Known about the structure:
The complex is a heterodimer. By secondary structure, chain A is mainly alpha-helical. Chain A folds into two domains: 5-129; 132-233, no CATH class. Chain A is 54% helix and 5% strand. In chain A, strands 1-2-3-4 form a four-stranded parallel β-sheet, with no helix packed on it. In chain A, helix 1 links the parallel strand 1 (5-7) and strand 2 (33-35). Chain A is elongated, with a radius of gyration of 19 Å. By secondary structure, chain B is mainly α. Chain B has one domain. Chain B contains nine helices and three strands, in the order H-H-H-H-H-E-H-E-H-E-H-H. The longest helix of chain B has 20 residues, at 3-22.
Amino acid sequence: xxxxxxxxxxxxxxxxxxxxxxxxxxxxxxxxxxxxxxxxxxxxxxxxxxxxxxxxxxxxxxxxxxxxxxxxxxxxxxxxxxxxxxxxxxxxxxxxxxxxxxxxxxxxxxxxxxxxxxxxxxxxxxxxxxxxxxxxxxxxxxxxxxxxxxxxxxxxxxxxxxxxxxxxxxxxxxxxxxxxxxxxxxxxxxxxxxxxxxxxxxxxxxxxxxxxxxxxxxxxxxxxxxxxxxxxxxxxxxx
Amino acid sequence: xxxxxxxxxxxxxxxxxxxxxxxxxxxxxxxxxxxxxxxxxxxxxxxxxxxxxxxxxxxxxxxxxxxxxxxxxxxxxxxxxxxxxxxxxxxxxxxxxxxxxxxxxxxxxxxxxxxxxxxxxxxxxxxxxxxxxxxxxxxxxxxxxxxxxxxxxxxxxxxxxxxxxxxxxxxxxxxxxxxxxxxxxxxxxxxxxxx
Lengths: 239, 195
């Protein structure tokens, strides 16, 4: 029996020597369940990225692929499109391209996730990501993030504390991403959401509330409840 | 392996644990040493052990190794070894085929564990049907002495017929010397040795 399930989660693929990379690529193309989460795929050289894409596309073995937590949002549009096309054309029946909390940080990842779902290649979490309330929350978050980024670009000298809605997200965005070597879990999502909620509560205690903040708080609470239930039922995303 | 045979192996484990637990400390240490010695090559079953649990004589070598490895690890005073013993015991009782997922915890160093402990664990890997192997940085594969490294590779090679899941998490692969990286991946890619 050849190895069917192969995980390199947490391995920096960009740092492997060429021989190891080639050996790894051969294994990757021959397994059924492949976990490459937390593997720094966004940092791969163009040549290695192309090789990885080629093997994902051509493999007749891979059925389930996890490439979450690879900072895919940092990839340029053309590379994201190539990745989507490769998964679409592949034999993969369930792809996880992002962890839930990643979707809060990147429009690109959210878009890729939706595209993979539209292609019928998404993992079992697709139902969750497609819920109207979850979509609304993610969209709301990304809108705020965009406003923040534009604001930072235009008025570097101004203090963010004057903009309570933005301050909360500034502190989240500048926080170093957590390393979750063992892969995405609902418990981790619960923790991330609680972190956001804590910051939001603190903010609302210090500043006059606004309808937008109230709505966001409500959405966060609902999302936490759902994630907590999911964590109780299935500790590992996709499990 | 039928369910009743699997059950009897776990019963023997329980019997042995109770019998060893009841003897005085010095005798207990002697018996545990003898059990370890039975796992060494070409070692015969001591009368002390067979008198303690006569039905062991009716079991084949692999069954004895499964039983002894569980018993020995369960008497360890290290929690991580007791956890591994529990995993072995579960494989013995929950799966009629003795299918074992060997998940080395992050606080278990293959490089630094006592030689007897490694002998027991390495023996268990071969005595059970190894279906999954999970290694992580805390196992310190990069600093394993050659004999332990080769034993690990040999266990993976011997399990080629059953092994269907491998997880090499975190920086485990990155820390290995390139030669060892290549050796490990070659064993995983068993049957496709063109690289």
